[in-house]
Design goal:
This protein is of the alpha/beta class and 278 residues long. Helices cover 36% and strands 21% of the residues. Helix 3 packs across helix 5. It starts with 8 loop residues before the first strand and ends with a helix.
């Protein structure tokens, strides 16, 4: 009988600024997962010396997409391009190493679960997102990431189409109301989930009494107890719990997302997790 391969945890990170917290992101993921990889560049390789792979080794299709890319956002063009191109990198990584899927996390997320066990619950789907829009912690099958990359190429390859015009108008409406942001990979993920494959895209950030919760962002209450601008957590045996007010139950968290100014909290929470095991 063929041995079942583990599902990898994959972080894809480009150095726009120093991110020392990335070391704790990798260490935490390794606690419950045998295959953890940082696909990065020379600016961040030292944060995960045993788990680092060059992102440039998995760049098939990236240049072709970037040729088609049209920047419709007030955000930095380099960052927005990277947010799109990382999905091609993930696709190529799974292809090259013959993985049937992966759990992707951003470089500001602590993961407390086992990706292989969690993937089994979702392997019938193309992917699972957070709030129907964000891939910051997302399960992908190889078939699913192939389909999403094809959707990106198809959409940006026909800028005269209804689909591209509808998505581009997201930027123009925000401009009209003097709002920042615009067309980004989250816009395309939402469209992929809502219009292209609604029956094959799941949701991670839904509270349930019998499953792990995937944090959208730590500074949003999302129905949980909230204190000092973030969710109120307690740690037990290396797992964070928060009380869901409607369910009146302590729910285990698979991830905590330290977006933006909350990144400095990563080391503190990593140590709290360790202390709770001791």
């Amino acid at each position: 009988m063929k041995e079942q391969r583990s599902i990898p945890v994959v972080v894809i990170s480009k150095t726009f600024r120093p991110l020392p917290e990335l070391e704790f992101v990798i260490k935490q993921a390794k606690k419950n997962n045998s295959d953890v990889f940082l696909l990065g560049d020379e600016g961040n390789s030292h944060y995960a010396p045993d788990n680092y792979r060059k992102m440039s080794e998995y760049d098939e299709g990236v240049a072709e997409f970037e040729e088609l890319y049209q920047h419709l956002s007030t955000n930095h063009e380099g960052i927005e391009k990277f947010c799109f191109s990382r999905w091609f990198v993930l696709r190529n990584f799974l292809r090259k190493h013959d993985y049937k899927g992966a759990f992707y996390i951003d470089n500001d997320i602590l993961f407390f679960g086992n990706a292989t066990l969690e993937f089994e619950k979702r392997k019938h789907l193309y992917c699972t997102l957070s709030w129907h829009t964000s891939g910051h912690s997302s399960y992908w099958t190889l078939e699913g990431i192939e389909a999403f990359c094809a959707y990106l190429m198809e959409t940006y390859g026909d800028k005269g189409s209804y689909d591209f015009s509808r998505l581009a108008n997201h930027f123009y409406v925000r401009q009209h109301f003097k709002l920042d942001g615009g067309l980004c990979d989250m816009t395309l993920l939402e469209s992929f989930a809502r219009y292209k494959f609604p029956h094959l895209v799941g949701e991670c950030s839904v509270a349930s009494p019998d499953r792990w919760y995937y944090d959208h962002v730590i500074h949003e209450a999302e129905g949980f107890e909230y204190e000092n601008g973030i969710k109120k957590f307690r740690f037990e045996n290396g797992t964070p719990f928060a009380t869901h007010l409607k369910l009146e139950k302590d729910i285990p968290f698979a991830t905590i997302h330290f977006q933006g100014p909350n990144k400095p909290l990563i080391e503190k929470f990593y140590k709290l997790c360790n202390d709770s095991i001791i």
